[in-house]
Design brief:
The protein is of the alpha/beta class. It has 9 helices and 8 strands. α1 packs parallel to α3 and α7 packs across α8.
Length: 264
């Protein structure tokens, strides 16, 4: 049965290691779900003009989760699919034409990065629902965005019930201010960084904690970031994880903590 791709062709810009931060987070956070999956099928949706990110994803998951993981790169543009074929390594890494309908596949995990950023906010909920309805039982969706070099990023973890967490990620050694993370919020949140919205409160609180932790700067940027996140937690934000996680430049909170106060 043929599946008509759902979505539009995106700009397709990408770079090697652009998604390293989210990939490493997936290995640690979603690894248990992939290990428990009857079929460790992973979809990289909208990989762009070159297949570098699905190639890297397959390598990281095979090394960090299970060697039999299979990755399928999906793109709406058939020209991009054809161009990616030389990088295929069947059955572990293949490419196909597809969109939010996931080409009829039932993956255990979907990574959709820098895709919805190019859509309207009103289209996000429908795209999330279309993808999560096609997940295998216990499946997960990681949807988000990052800058061109992967130094700043943010993503939402979802299952069939909806969004579970929001993660903000930065490279501490190049971070000048956590406020710059607002530029990389997922489409569901990026326009909500205004007074009266919880995501705005979070960004403001994070920036305040960062400035308060300036005294730790001589001990290195990772220590300053870790102290920043610790201060945020002490202020009452339900930060997940432990200092060893925070040192990597990530901050994860339950999605309801920062969910939009009104529908889009």
């Amino acid at each position: 049965m043929a599946h008509r791709p759902l979505g539009v062709v995106t700009r397709g810009t990408t770079n090697p290691n652009r998604l390293r931060r989210v990939d490493n987070w997936i290995v640690e956070t979603c690894g248990a779900a992939l290990r428990a999956a009857a079929d460790p099928l992973v979809v990289d949706l909208g990989y762009g003009a070159t297949p570098v990110t699905p190639v890297e994803l397959r390598a990281r998951l095979a090394a960090g989760v299970r060697p039999d993981v299979r990755v399928v790169g999906l793109e709406i543009d058939p020209v991009r699919v054809a161009a990616a074929e030389p990088a295929a390594d069947p059955p572990w890494l293949t490419f196909a034409r597809g969109g939010f309908e996931l080409a009829g596949l039932r993956p255990a995990l979907v990574r959709a990065f820098n895709v919805l950023r190019q859509y309207d906010e009103s289209e996000v909920a429908g795209a999330w629902r279309t993808m999560t309805e096609r997940l295998a039982p216990g499946g997960l969706l990681v949807e988000g965005t990052c800058d061109e070099l992967g130094r700043l990023g943010a993503w939402v973890l979802l299952d069939r019930t909806g969004p579970r967490t929001l993660t903000l990620a930065a490279k501490p050694t190049t971070l000048e201010s956590p406020a710059t993370l607002a530029e990389r919020l997922p489409k569901a949140l990026i326009h909500r960084n205004v007074p009266g919205e919880r995501i705005h409160d979070l960004i403001q609180a994070l920036e305040h904690a960062w400035q308060s932790a300036a005294g730790y700067a001589p001990f290195g940027p990772r220590e300053r970031w870790t102290r920043t996140v610790a201060a945020l937690k002490q202020a009452g934000w339900p930060v997940q994880g432990r200092p060893r996680h925070w040192r990597r430049g990530t901050l994860t909170l339950p999605y309801p903590t920062i969910a939009p106060t009104t529908p889009s």
